[in-house]
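1st attempt posting a full record on here, be nice pls
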Amino acid sequence: MAKFRLQRELIEISKDPPPGCSAGPLDDDIFEWEAMIAGPYDDITSPYAGGVFFLQMTFPHDYPWKPPMVKFLTDIYHPVVEQSTGKLFLNKLSSPWSPDLTISKLLLCIKTLLDSPDPNGGQLSLLEAFMYNKTAAEWTRKHADIK
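the predicted structure (as tokens):
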């Protein structure tokens, strides 16, 4: 069932990719995908503006009943990404996982994190927010293939 679902989602994402995103299997393994998410181009105030971020998506053999493991291959400074491994900690990737969540929808959720980062739930002081944005922008320039 997982292989059929992934093949169907591959066709859908190939025909109608989410804005600023792309994804597909690596080599011939339908359970290992690489995805690309472009940082916002219309918001130069975002620390991720102009960056191109690559992710690895590993799907379990009981997908869509279990979530994929998603990690950033591009180094990124973000509060929901573990810096040492790139692993993404997103509520949608933990329980309760919904089989209604497609790869396209998941990529859009991740893109939203780059378009509207809200470190620490908006509880940062102005200085902390400035330092966060400064560091995130530096990491983006250094690691994310700014165009």
